[in-house]
Specification:
single chain; Immunoglobulin-like; two-stranded antiparallel ribbon; 16 strands; globular
Length: 217
């Protein structure tokens, strides 16, 4: 799986939240892991970058939306959640960040040295350097069973990431390894869905060997 990331001079995060251009339709999170859910959310992702930031925009057409976590680095993955796992240094493709954001915009961020075994939790004051805009402002409890579309936009500074991983600021033809996910594990419609397909009998997002490629253009 390869996704081409376009360079933009626009520094306004809100510019990502628009119809995808003819040259960048985005990518679709579509590979279900584990049991197929009764309802499969439709999730599309678009990524852009500047010389200072990487921008990620998720749009989710969802149902059975539940969201209760309000603490940074809390159990956001149990809620209706989108995730961006990425390894910015190809010399160490199994060392990666996992950024997880529930539909309310509450985030978790770790830097993984060894998948499932050794990781660093990025502190709240550093996570707050990531600008996150959510279209879904409120706690959802009980879950919303009817159709709802929500979005998450995030603006991630390269300087913050470089505290944990040495990498060159992306330019044309730079490549990262990455995967994108849509999940919810504590509602009436649990699901585990990825962009780049993961070969595993049980749902497991922490599999960097199955990451796809992000190519900066």
């Amino acid at each position: 799986m390869i996704y081409n990331i376009l360079h933009t001079k626009d520094s306004f995060l809100s510019q990502i939240d628009k119809d995808f251009s003819d040259s960048d339709k985005g990518l679709e999170i579509s590979h279900v892991m584990g049991q197929f859910p009764n309802y499969k959310p439709n999730t599309t992702v678009r990524v852009l970058y500047t010389n200072e930031h990487i921008y990620v925009f998720f749009r989710v057409r969802d149902r059975f939306v539940r969201c209760i976590e309000t603490c940074t680095n809390g159990k956001v993955w149990e809620d209706s959640c989108v995730e961006f796992f990425f390894a910015p240094n190809l010399k160490y493709p199994k060392q990666y960040f996992n950024l997880e954001i529930n539909c309310k915009g509450t985030a978790l961020l770790h830097y993984n040295l060894i998948a499932r075994k050794e990781f660093l939790t990025v502190p709240k004051d550093e996570i707050n350097q990531i600008e996150i805009i959510s279209s879904f402002a409120n706690i959802a409890e009980p879950e919303i069973k009817t159709a709802v579309t929500w979005s998450i936009s995030c603006k991630i500074p390269f300087t913050m990431l470089k505290k944990y991983s040495y990498f060159d600021i992306p330019k044309k033809n730079t490549e990262w390894r990455a995967n994108f996910y849509k999940t919810a594990s504590n509602n009436s419609n649990p699901h585990y869905i990825s962009w780049s397909k993961i070969e595993s009998e049980k749902p497991d997002f922490h599999r960097p060997e199955f990451f796809g490629t992000l190519k900066f253009c």
